[in-house]
């Protein structure tokens, strides 16, 4: 997660009028998706809305929503389904957040350094004996609310100063564990950032979620997902759409310009 301004569960963001251009239509209807057994797999080019703060505006005319798993209710998920949307459950699986209702269940020994956001600390992802049941319970919550997929965040701790000697192999094992927990519950799962490990993980994940690959000249690293027929849901915060949308369309990314608080406002490529 690269956002320099923290969104919070209690942040009240006024519902703004939807602003932006309509995304270019992909070759096939993005509201549909290829089925892989019971697992939903969004196609490249699928339009989406990512809203993690404020009251969810269910009226945005896109086929995919990504919303907070703890803050949003089964009723909100059902309303989005009634409108024909697929719904992704946002969870932090690589960092502890002190405001979550299960925060007290994480023992101190698995909590590392702060990750740059108030109230958050990296997790020792090597301790799957502790973390697996906690993450399974979180993903059960997503399943019980009817979500179609999971977006697990903070999945690149090995590249950060976590306070633990994490390796790339530790990260691969943990990311695959999270993917497996989602798949066991009939949900798809997205790889969040972690660009360096895409070649090893593209077969384990059903789509990707990326922040600011255009700003950091990294979008080409996401092409294995597109080549595999899997959507890449991409957001920029600081670049104008004219600076990244042409390349996003060429690469078939599902790109948005968003504000840092990740409220309702969006501009699609």
UniProtKB/TrEMBL annotation:
UniProt-recorded name of the protein: Endo alpha-1,4 polygalactosaminidase
Keyword Signal attached: yes
Pfam families per UniProt: Glyco_hydro_114 (PF03537)
Domain spans labelled Glycoside-hydrolase family GH114 TIM-barrel: 48-262
The organism's taxonomic lineage, starting at the top: Bacteria, Bacillati, Actinomycetota, Actinomycetes, Kitasatosporales
Signal peptide region: 1-24
Keywords tagged on the record: Signal
